[in-house]
Amino acid sequence: SYELTQPPSVSVSPGQTASITCSGDKLGDKYVCWYQQKPGQSPVLVIYQNNKRPSGIPERFSGSNSGNTATLTISGTQAMDEADYYCQAWDSSVAFGGGTKLTVL
Amino acid sequence: EVQLVESGGGLVQPGGSLRLSCSASRFRFSSYWMTWVRQAPGKGLEWVANIKQDGREKYYVDSVKGRFTISRDNTKNSLYLQMNSLRGEDTAVYYCASWNGDYVAFDIWGQGTLVTVSS
Band of the pLDDT at B46, cuts 50, 70, 90? Predict the structure, then answer.
């Protein structure tokens, strides 16, 4: 099965830029999406097709994907962005990264 | 508002069975691949199974093959997961989600239903 690797945790100060990486073999050849999950809530899609935002997702969320690494970037991070973030790609089946806990402090 | 609502979770003994349901509303259910994703307590997301629009193609993660069966009833806008021979490691919140082929992503998620396998 295809493996996606994320750092367990990332910390950022309010107003600064947070970057969360997701690594996988030749990941740049695949579409990557990102989900945000707050405690006790369902995941919410924040980025699809590497760098597109669904309706209602703030512009401060952006994404990129090249080589073996995809990156979710949150510019001007706000306290409300504190959550777990999961990357996901499709290989022969659905693959999720292990998740990254974003702390805003 | 588009909505997916899961039900059927609960406490079950090891070796037991449970059937989860997911009801879709204000949503073109029959047009989408549908999926079950689970999340063990304090852990990450794990894809469990998915099913094509007409129900003729089904795929499962290796750990549930032969024990779980995904199905759907498009006339009732409903998705199901029959879980047999349950194990402790199946304890999780189970989410149903729709696969958006244009997005290549799960764009709609239910609120989840908790399955606890314990004696």
Answer: very high
The alpha carbon of residue B25 and the mean position of all alpha carbons in its chain are separated, in whole angstroms, by: 16
**Which tokens go with B1?**
């508002």
- Taking contacts as CB-CB distances below 8 angstroms, the residues of chain A near B46 are 96
Distance from the B65 Cα atom to the nearest Cα atom in chain A, whole angstroms? 14
- Find chain A residues with C-beta within 8 A of B41's C-beta: none
As a whole number, mean pLDDT of residues A1-8 equals: 95
Asked whether the beta carbons of B101 and B20 are under 8 A apart, the reply is: no
Report which of B4, B7, B24, B11 is spatially closest to residue B119, judged by C-alpha positions: B11
Q: Give the tens place of pLDDT for each residue, B78-107.
A: 999 999 999 999 999 999 999 998 999 999
Interface with B, mutate which of A1, A9, A42 (most B CBs under 10 A): A42
The encoded tokens of residue B119 equal: 């004696």
Tokens of B70: 């995904």
Do B117 and B86 meet the contact criterion of CB atoms below 8 Å apart? yes
Residues comprising chain B, all counted: 119
Are B94 and B9 a contacting pair, CB within 8 Å?
yes
